[in-house]
Amino acid sequence: MSIRDCALQSRAFSALKQVYDSRDAVAAAWKAQGKKVVAKLGCDVPDELVIAAGMLPIQIYADPKKTLQYTNQYLEHAFDPQVRAQFERMVDGTYQNLADYIVISNSTDIVIRVFLYLRELKRVEPQMPIPPVAFIDWLFTRHQLHQNRNQFVLNLFKQQLEAWSDHVITDEEIRQASILCNENRQALRQMAALRHGSEVRISGSEALVIIGAGLFMEKTKHTALVRQVTQEAQNWPVLTGPRVFYTGANQEDLTLYEMIEKNGLVIVGEDTDWGERSFDHDCNLEDPAIRAVADRYHFREFSAKKSLVSQRVEALDREVGACGAKGVIFYTNQYDEVATWDMPKQRKSLEAKGIRHITFGKMNWPVEKNRGLEQQLAVFAAEMKGAVL
User: What is the CATH number of the domain that holds 54?
Assistant: First the structure.
């Protein structure tokens, strides 16, 4: 048994870990009941509207054990390898069995390209086992013109969901779904506080399980389990060691975090879509239903893919300071170059504040393919421990 003996034998944590390890099971059970599932690619597909339509939203992820039979045929190698593995599951029949529809948001340029490839593939080879695909064309510049357009775009997505579900989605249904999602995000923030305080009681890998399980299960059940774990974790032993912040490629499994923690470092935060960024902003329930949802995604924390370098520098400084990290680990996959644009100025700003950092760029996927990674982490950990002492 790993992850601190499955988070000190907590039943709630074990339930979350089971979902995290068998993340397709909930969707399969949902479909077995005759209900519909929406598989999401990108971090800006609004759960609120999918839930209001009576469907289960699940996140598309990569399977490192799959051979890329179709991806190697249709997708060039100059894609992030993790995205290539996600593409395989979308075209090999996996999501035809797990989901009724795929929805893609333009969260990154590479995700937009995936949508274009899928659309063309469905056109020229309609026999391929790919579910119907919809696209959400958000605008992210923070001024009123784009804010208004995003409400229009979200109304189009609402109409698509209504056609798929054969159900007219009411404002009250959107509001109730927004309440469920707000409660879930608030529960996750309460959990995250046990990573950031004067005493750290939840590790980074434990947090990944708690957060990640929510990408594959019903919000009400996930919220209840998160609250139970948070209550129990207040009495868990305090984690000691140098605090570090992680930024870069999404970690869809625990391999890298466990490697970092094995060397005595404590991961107290991250700005990834599979981490704390997923619950950083709520819907304003005082606003009209569609506007509340649109603004929630429009005004989320800045990511590397849709912000200025200066905004990313400011955001990283703020988040590192808020969680008390004394070091930062930068990690990007091969062919994922956008995040690297921010890093020189981010590192400069961190150095001015006495924050140590280490950068791993153009990394192979999955993590296990990187020779020497664990040794480099051990050296960095030793330096961090020396700095702390």
Answer: 3.40.50.11890
